[in-house]
Amino acid sequence: MDSQNTLPINKLLVAEDNESNFLLVMTILKRDYQIIHALDGLEAIQKYRQYSPDAILMDLKMPNMDGLEATREIRKLNTCIPIIVVSAFAFDSDKQEASAAGCTDYLTKPIDARLLKETLKKYLS
Could you tell me the domains of the chain? Predict the structure, then answer.
């Protein structure tokens, strides 16, 4: 028997306003995670409270509330949940700002499927 099938499936909150980016993440991760989608930072905070996910993938540029502000708010509720930025912004200043806001790690778009899976596994195992 494959012991992997007996493990509880991790819940992953994906805060991403772009439908095609979300669908890509969904396609890469749907076999291994229960995916919860938030369209902006405000919804990310609300769904974080509602579903208590095991990790968060956070876009930075979103309507209503950006990913950094949402991260700061979620950090007030939980200081140790992995919050991994998935963003098209790749400058060191963006990475430093994300780190200062409380983000755990930083991946750049276009998404590398193997790196995304490895990064999540690193924080969830």
Answer: 8-112 (3.40.50.2300)
